Sequence to fold (125 residues):
Amino acid sequence: MAVHQYKQVSTEPLPTGEVTIRMQFDADEPRPGTGGTVSLWANGNQIGEGRMERTVSLRFSFYAGMDVGRDNGMTVDPAYRDKAPYTFTGTVNKVIFDLKPAPHEDEKKLHEVAHHGAAAAAMAG
Fold:
C-alpha cells in the first residue's frame, strides 16, 4: 500500500503573538479520495495555496487522528522525525474542525461509495 505525502507551506512567515491559523480544503468532487485545493490563512489573510491530488479514500488506521500540539505517532513531515514527538511549546487556546456538510445528495453518494467499497473488501477476504 502506497503512502502519499503532500506538503503545503506558507509563502510568508507566520505573525508573532496571538494568531488565528486556518487550513481550508476545497474538494474537486463530493467523493472519497478526491483531490482539491489547499489554502493556508493567518489572521484572515491567505498565506499559501497548493494542490492535494488525492485524499484518504475510505478509512484510517486504528491510530490515525488529528493530534494538536504534538504528534504521538509518526511526524507529519519526515524532516522532523529526529525531533519526534516535536512538542509545541507555545499555547493553543482553541482548535476548531469545521467540516462543512455536503448537500444531501452529495452526502448520500459518499455513503453509497463507502458501502460498496466495504462490501467489496469483505467479499475479497
